[in-house]
Amino acid sequence: MGRFDLVEQPWIPVMAEGERVEVGIRRALVEAHLFDGFAVDDPLEVVAVLRQVLLPVLIDACGAPRDREEWSSWWEDGEFCDERLKQLGKYFKHHAVDCFDLFHPERPFAQVAGLRTAKGETKPVSLLIPRLAAGNNVPLFSARAESDPPALTPARAARALLSVHCWDTAAIKSGAVDDPAVKAGKTTGNPTGPVGQLGVIVPFGATLFHTLLLNLPILPQGVNPGDRPQWRAEAAAGPGWSSRGARGLLDLLTWQARRVRLVAELEDAAPGGVVVRQVVLAAGDRLRGSAHEVEPHTAWRQVDKPKSDEPPQRPVRHQPGRSAWRGLEALLATSSPTSDRVSSSALLTQLAALRLDEYVAEDLPLRVLTVGVRYGNQSAVIEDVMSDEIPLPVTALTENTEVRDVVLTVARQAEDLRIAANRLGDDLRAAVGADKLPWDRGQRLGDVLVHLLTPTVRRLLAGLALHPGDADGAEQAWRIVARRLAWEVADPVLSAAEPATFLGREPEQRFGPRLANAEASFRRSLNNILGRPVTTQGRPNGEAAA
Question: Which of 47, 266, 365, 430 has its CA 20 to 30 A from that of 397?
Fold first, then answer.
């Protein structure tokens, strides 16, 4: 079977002058300043490529900055300097042949050579891709059945391979020959991929180079002795696995959560003449203990009274259906925890310190990608993939700034508006004797309002990122637009209310549930949240003060 050299062959999707292209590891790093960033075709794969390959190669080849001043010297160059380019070139020359070949006969990248089950069974390669049907994982709108697996190019297969190490489901896995933990041809008790337990937060910069630097932790003590990426292990991986803690950052980033073998097939019509339709997937290493001290890509919640076998900090996972901007308080908790005892990710905390020391500009074009997975049925299936990307003013990460105050105020007011809209819906239902709408059924008015507010909040964040001095004007504009959108949600509901709501179920009660009281309560809520309207032109452009 032919080689697929991940260093030179194109497989990493990036954006170059607005066009999607694929490049190998060498070009992705050496020419990082020429690319706009990742092409986010699949957010799970973007996270996997960044964590499992690009960051570990960069750190293993060039080391990591020891302090903020050294980090700043990297950043100010705008691209990797000649010294680091030489380090990367030497690294590739030494490791490319034996470490980064996807189909190497003895050490295939991130796989186990000759991995097989006792019966020689293979599974469809769709097992590596959450949105395709495979086994128990049957997405509702999948266009393929398990019996019709796709034919993946080596590039696509490489990205799926890395993704499964990060995000794979839990439950029973095929038993591999020579794995001592196999019982009755299978292994049980497998956890999900370690990244699947996180609410991943990835800062993006203006170029791929800036993105890499924003995701590069400062390591005052350098890389831990004995810490290395999986491809530099002393011996090739075998079917056996272990349960242990991470030896350091490189070990954590390249964690081999599964034992995998891609089954390559020759196909003349395919690009490169090779496709992957089948795979062998078995149990891999299990991460024990807390990775709080080394994990850079998630926020953490302090546990008040952890159990004896649980760490005092737990990663914060993203909530399905919740836009990233609604979690701004946690993202900005870089100096002290929130009221829910949540602290921001290590990388955003690091960036806050860099901004405080003025190593990065106040108008840095920062974006934040949030990615997470919701598992179901004992974590044996993936029910949902949550992904969002928002602009974030870097000045908001630091304490005692006007931009930060405005951003937190907007997030808090938006949540209060959502609650007020939901209360309006509940009051109108009460007026006709109906029960409140259950939180998990139907569409609530607050959810409709949040959907309308989202583009406004994104524009506000983008504007403050470019013009941090316009915080006052941004807040005033927000109040005007938020009030208008709130009435755009409320007015149709009030106008379409049933006749029975005019007097309500109990007309003799002055303040009982009825249409007028529901509307008055909603107006008061808007004034309490946003302040009284500047004009009195009438709803919805500025309703009369209550």
Answer: 47
